[in-house]
Amino acid sequence: MKPGPLLTIFATILVFTGMTATADSPIAIAIHGGAGTISRSTVTVEQEQAIRAKLLEAITTAYQVLENDGDSMDAVISAIKILEDSPHFNAGKGSVFTWDGKNEMDAALMDGASLDAGAISGVANIANPIVLARLVMQKSKHVFLSGDGAVEFAIEQGLEKVPDKYFFTERRWQQLQDFKNQPELAAAEPQYRIGTVGAVALDRKGNLVAGTSTGGTTGKRYGRIGDSPIIGAGTYANNRSVAVSATGAGEFFIRGTVAHDISALVEYKGMTVDDAAREVIFEKLAALKGDGGVIAIDRHGNISMPFNTEGMYRASIDTSGKVKIMLYGEKAETK
Amino acid sequence: MKPGPLLTIFATILVFTGMTATADSPIAIAIHGGAGTISRSTVTVEQEQAIRAKLLEAITTAYQVLENDGDSMDAVISAIKILEDSPHFNAGKGSVFTWDGKNEMDAALMDGASLDAGAISGVANIANPIVLARLVMQKSKHVFLSGDGAVEFAIEQGLEKVPDKYFFTERRWQQLQDFKNQPELAAAEPQYRIGTVGAVALDRKGNLVAGTSTGGTTGKRYGRIGDSPIIGAGTYANNRSVAVSATGAGEFFIRGTVAHDISALVEYKGMTVDDAAREVIFEKLAALKGDGGVIAIDRHGNISMPFNTEGMYRASIDTSGKVKIMLYGEKAETK
User: Fold this and answer.
1) Do B234 and B249 meet the contact criterion of CB atoms below 8 Å apart?
2) A13 to chain B, minimum CA–CA distance in Å?
């Protein structure tokens, strides 16, 4: 949202009367592009370069929004849109195929200041599901829309349908064929779903926002809904605690209510965001035999990005402005 | 689940060696049939008698399961099936109509011992959505299925489709017409969604289970998903803390991650189930301007049933065997 005239006048008064405006929080942001079997042996040099470049583009674009006193909501959406527009991630353009050869996407967005939220599931032919999630949050009395109905809502709100071919990528199509030939093998292999994207940010007003977008899992059937659009599972933000976006085997993140659990450990047990995120990923999620990771940020701008898989595409710019772009585990990354 | 031969032999050995089996937890159960503008002026004597009778039937049937050393899972499902089969509640047979004149139902089930869960959304022509939720939990690798795909899964698992007319009730059909004529008026009136059903139970093994089933809101559009099938929002169970089922304006329960928040306050802040449930309903949900209520039970069998509406259809049998059947606020109830 852009500040209205009234807000501008109000801010001007604050400046003229010598008061500090609320623009005094540190700013920070983290993004992810999926967790899984990511190592130097499974990623080609070309893939690695392309993914690093896209993560860098997304995080610097979003950080500029924050630097220019923009909202964390706009920052999160700008990062996710860039990742949705890239064929390298399982979201938007690069989404995996369902059993029926379609691309059906899930996304969610949550505002830590108001606890407003918008989520969508099973949405086809929408280029940027995260933009639709924002429209649900802002323009619908509902929080969570799904399927053809959500697309109908998108059209009413002025979004355009893009043709099926927009979402066609040879790699993802081949993965569906592999999955149909050897479903058990492919199901066990995170490559077949890797690439869910997400972002969490803290803006100068001290507001936390979280967003997540995904194509789900290759060969998904029966209208499967994963954790990404579930507020409290794959996506959660609360100014009292943290903003979290998750990626991994969604079913376990739902059962673990992972994103809200991290928030609750911070708010109710007084844990640091890093201790809370690590406990949930390495202890509680692992106990359920679930694999994946999260990005989390607290209201002071502290960032945590734990994962119990081999790697996780991730990037951050912390409160001191330090940029990190990483694909593998810490040790492999610094080789 | 019935005990298999091996378990029977094992239990027999325990008895013969004089050891106490695990069958030593107190048992207790609570159910709800919706929260809203329920008062002696809005409910006819006939409605009241029918609703009280059905709540009594559901809770005594479920309690007998627990008394006979049955699982809390079977107890919860037996109660919810009875309420789904009644035209008096907004679940199963008595479900409200969507904008398009259909009956599309949501349900969820969670096992506090394993954190296993099953959920469905937007499912038509299935008489007992809670049974389908259990099949998702037990027979699918996924946790959450939706729409036509969920129905396809139901058929594969041997459930039968019932015709549209099974779900036709004159009262609900008239509510849809009212809603179409005066959508704002009807949307503000909880009568148009009242009747979500749910159950929480503690069995002799000390296992907690929660389940919820609903037809959603009258005139719902765009594939709207409410809180009932969202693990952590409308339904949650964890043997470390509590089992919770919610009813009310679903969007607020999603934003408040109500069910998991009550669990987290008990587990992480050491609050009693009643203090936790009351704080979430009267403070946090009210701050979001959300209305509704929950039933919650902890691992000792303590029951809490707070609501911030005028009334909530509810019933409980506590650890001492005391039966309560209530529709209105405490004061109005004891008149």
Assistant:
1) no
2) 30
ipTM of the complex: 0.91
Residue showing tokens 């339904």: B235
Catalytic, A169? Answer no
**Weakest mean pLDDT among A12-21, A46-55, A83-92, B168-177:** A12-21
**Calpha distance A210→A116 (Å, rounded):** 11
- Ranking A49-63, A141-155, A266-280, B44-58 by mean pLDDT, the lowest is B44-58
pLDDT tens digits along B42-80: 778 888 899 999 999 999 999 999 999 999 999 999 999
Q: Which of the following is catalytic: A12, A20, A98, A196?
A: A196
CA of A99 to nearest chain B CA: how many angstroms apart? 11
Give the closest of B153, B233, B251 to A222, CB-based: B153
Radius of gyration of chain B (CA): 19
For residue A256, the chain B residues in CB contact (below 8 A) are 115
- Using an 8 Å Cβ cutoff, are A72 and A206 in contact? no
Full residue range of the structural domain in which residue A225 is found: 25-333
| B141, B223, B269 ranked by CB distance to A146: nearest | B223
Residue A184: pLDDT over 90: no
Whether A13 maps to a domain, the answer reads no
CATH no. for residue B154? 3.60.20.30
- The single residue of B196, B217, B218, B257 carrying the catalytic annotation is B196
| pLDDT tens-digit series, residues B234-249 | 999 999 999 999 999 9
What is the pLDDT, as a whole number, of residue B191? 66
Interchain CB distance below 8 Å, A117 and B254: yes
Residues of B with CB under 8 A from a CB of A: 110, 115-117, 121-122, 140-150, 152-153, 187, 220-226, 230-233, 236, 250-251, 254-257, 260-261, 264-265, 268-269, 288
Residue A284 lies in a domain: yes
Q: Is A274 exposed, middle or buried (0-12, 13-18, 19+ CB in 10 A)?
A: middle
More confident residue, A276 or A217: A276
Q: Which of A90-104, A180-194, A222-236, A284-298 has the lowest mean pLDDT?
A: A180-194
Answer whether B222 sits within 8 Å of A140, measured CB to CB: yes
Give which of B111, B217, B225 to mutate to test A binding, by max A Cβ within 10 Å: B225
CA distance A165 to A151: 17
The alpha-helical segments, DSSP class H, found in B92-162 are 129-139, 147-156
Q: Which residue has the higher pLDDT, A185 or A99?
A: A99
3-class SS of residue B3: coil
pLDDT in tens, A25-80: 999 999 999 987 667 777 788 888 999 999 999 999 999 999 999 999 999 999 99
What pTM value is reported for the model? 0.91
Please state the domain count of chain A: 1
Closest CA to A142 of B225, B103, B289: B225
Structural domain contains residue A115: yes
Burial class of residue B227 (count of CB atoms within 10 Å of its CB; 0-12, 13-18, 19+): buried
Residues of chain B in contact with residue A288, where contact means CB-CB under 8 angstroms, are 115
Instruction: List the single residue in A with minimal CA-CA distance to B156.
Output: A222
B203 falls within a domain: yes
